[in-house]
Amino acid sequence: MIAPSGEQITIRAGVQQAVVVEVGGGLRSCSADGRELIGGYKAEEMSSSGRGQVLIPWPNRLQDGSYEFDGRRHQLPLNEPERRNAIHGLVRWATWTVAEREPHRAVMKYVLYPQPDYPFTLGISVEYALSDSGLRVRTTATNLGTGSCPYGNGAHPHLTLGIEPIDELMLRVPARSVLQSDERGLPVASESVEGTEYDFQQPRRIGARRGSIMRSPILIAIRMA
User: Which domain, by its residues, includes 178?
Assistant: First the structure.
């Protein structure tokens, strides 16, 4: 049987282990001393909710799947049809190549060739490396075409501590602003976190804020300062 996520590439360093997959070049699991650090998925499963996936050449959503670049409008397939959006790029379900492999390190590569909705050529490399300081992920994108190329990058690691509830945990997020979204998940505004429930610039207990953050229809991302 072939795993839904293709070849499983396992890297190790001391008590740390990570599994990178052929489909999408993403991170399926990551653990330290047997403790899971991300909310991944099993080898016999498909990634759900973008778990561990690489979001290129755009993260988040494009309204109505439409964008304009260099004076030309392009129309992408609506792969979030219930909200009429194009979501999370074009490489999540593509077959990537293991370009380099060492016991503690793997480099996944993919060439995104031109297509009607994205007529550009993009070379992508994602390096996963374990060390004493943990897991480092480095993404490199190269414009292989003759003209300018639109590009964005994001990831969905789905971090977890394996602890429920998380109310008593201390959280620090060095961010000064939060993005707001509408009912379609599209960013519509940005506001300062100062004095709001989203202000975690200094460590503080999560407490009841967990529920409000998880339920909030306006929180989609935290932008780093």
Answer: 170-224
